[in-house]
């Protein structure tokens, strides 16, 4: 069975992605800083007959990301799909005119460097076998910087860097059998019936299956 590793798994989007891929025959690895909090998700997946387990990974600690994904490989086998969508509301926010190194660096570590560390842990296996998918998530301000809330500009800058890297990685590895995709979400998940996690999750499946696009934007 193929394996999906979801970094930053939570009750909303992470669970929706897990259910979608799990329902299509994937084993599911959920990774977060506090894996014990993922027990309700594992119970819900088990009700659907999906084999899943939780693992520890702190995206701001590259060694933690590597060890978490190594544990996934030991338990389930090599990762076929990596999905990266952590969130941390405690990170500092700032308008573009107020951004400083101290404000931006935590965002870059969380968004960009965490994703690069995660990809670095699974990409060698993917390239060796000539197959695999890496999917990353940002807000829509990564695509349209002026459309984001001015107070959240620091997050947008880091997410824009993550998007840039995802596009560059896609170009680098697409001819070697590895798909890289980016989903930009321009809505508050769950705020309306049209913006539920279950409506967004299929975008990840489409990027994994179709492999002829690098980006989907959800408004």
Would you mind describing this structure in some detail?
By secondary structure, the protein is α/β, with parallel strands linked by helices. The protein has a single domain, classed as Rossmann fold (3-Layer(aba) Sandwich). It is built from 6 helices and 7 strands. Strands 3-2-1-4-5-6-7 form a 7-stranded parallel sheet, with helices on both faces. β2, α2 (39-47) and β3 form a beta-alpha-beta unit. α1 (13-22) crosses α6 (197-210), α3 (62-76) runs parallel beside α4 (101-129) and α4 (101-129) packs parallel to α5 (153-173). The protein is globular, with a radius of gyration of 16 Å. The mean pLDDT is 94.
Give a short summary of the structure.
The chain is an alpha/beta fold.
How would a textbook summarize the main sheet?
7 strands, parallel
The secondary-structure class comes to alpha/beta
CATH-derived topology: Rossmann fold
Give the ordered list of helices and strands. Answer: EHEHEHEHEHEHE
- Please tell me the overall pLDDT: 94
Q: What's the number of structural domains?
A: 1
Q: Low-confidence parts lasting 5 or more residues at pLDDT below 50?
A: none
Helix segment count?
6
The total of beta strands comes to 7
What gap, in angstroms, lies between the N and C termini? 33 Å
CATH top level? Alpha Beta
Q: What's the overall geometry?
A: globular
Give me the Rg, rounded.
16 Å
Task: Note the quaternary state here.
Answer: single chain
Strand order, sheet with most strands: 3-2-1-4-5-6-7
Strand content: 15-25%
CATH superfamily: NAD(P)-binding Rossmann-like Domain
Return the CATH architecture: 3-Layer(aba) Sandwich
Q: Helix coverage percent of residues?
A: 40-55%
């Amino acid at each position: 069975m193929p394996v999906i590793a979801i970094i930053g798994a939570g009750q909303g989007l992470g669970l929706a992605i897990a259910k979608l891929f799990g329902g299509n025959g994937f084993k599911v690895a959920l990774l977060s800083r506090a894996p014990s909090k993922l027990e309700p998700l594992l119970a819900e997946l088990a009700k659907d007959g999906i084999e899943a387990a939780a693992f520890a990974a702190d995206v701001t600690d590259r060694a933690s990301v590597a060890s978490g994904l190594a544990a996934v490989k030991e338990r389930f086998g090599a990762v076929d799909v990596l999905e990266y969508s952590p969130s941390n509301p405690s990170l500092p926010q700032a308008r573009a005119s107020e951004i400083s190194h101290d404000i931006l660096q935590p965002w870059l570590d969380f968004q960009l460097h965490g994703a690069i560390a995660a990809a670095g842990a699974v990409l060698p296996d993917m390239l060796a076998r000539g197959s695999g998918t890496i999917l990353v998530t940002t807000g829509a301000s990564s695509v349209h910087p002026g459309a984001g809330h001015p107070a959240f500009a620091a997050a947008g800058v880091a997410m824009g860097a993550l998007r840039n890297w995802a596009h560059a990685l896609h170009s680098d590895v697409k001819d070697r059998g590895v798909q890289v995709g980016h989903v930009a979400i321009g809505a508050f998940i769950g705020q309306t019936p049209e913006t539920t996690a279950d409506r967004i999750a299929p975008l990840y499946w489409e990027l994994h299956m179709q492999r002829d696009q690098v980006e989907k934007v959800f408004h």
